[in-house]
Design brief:
Shape: globular
Distance between the termini: 42 Å
Strand content: 15-25%
Largest sheet: 4 strands, mixed
Radius of gyration: 16 Å
Structural class: alpha+beta
Number of helices: 4
């Protein structure tokens, strides 16, 4: 599973130089998958800026109110098409790092759905460039 995440990241983004260091843990749940994700960006992003970027991205729901005990859980994502992001925070191990928690319904959002959504995006992008 860990190497699959490395290979899929390289393949989807078309860049074998992206460093990925995943840790996968199997936890028995009836549906959905959850990931703790650490990213390092070219420039420092604030937590608020990252939350806004996530919230402005179609298909992502930001659920990040730790004080109120709200963050994404498998019960939240079950039966939903969206990807839920929460627990967004600065990573203390690198200056440009962000860490966040990600949950989605693995039967509704996975490799096949992602492939279709990427293809739809490319078709829209090509149509827009032909109009211009």
């Amino acid at each position: 599973e860990e190497m699959k995440m490395v290979y899929e990241t390289h393949k989807i983004l078309g860049d074998d130089t992206i460093r990925v260091c995943p840790t996968c843990v199997r936890v028995p749940v009836s549906n959905c998958h959850s990931e703790s994700i650490l990213v390092e960006t070219e420039r420092k992003l604030s937590v608020d800026e990252a939350r806004k970027l996530f919230a402005d991205t179609p298909g992502i729901v930001v659920d990040d109110e730790l004080g109120a005990g709200r963050y994404p859980m498998t019960l939240t994502a079950d039966g939903r098409d969206e990807v839920f992001i929460g627990r967004v925070r600065a990573d203390l191990s690198t200056p440009n790092g962000l860490s966040f928690w990600c949950v989605s319904d693995n039967l509704r959002k996975g490799a096949a759905t992602n492939a279709v959504q990427i293809a739809e995006y490319l078709v829209r992008r090509r149509a827009a460039s032909n109009v211009a």
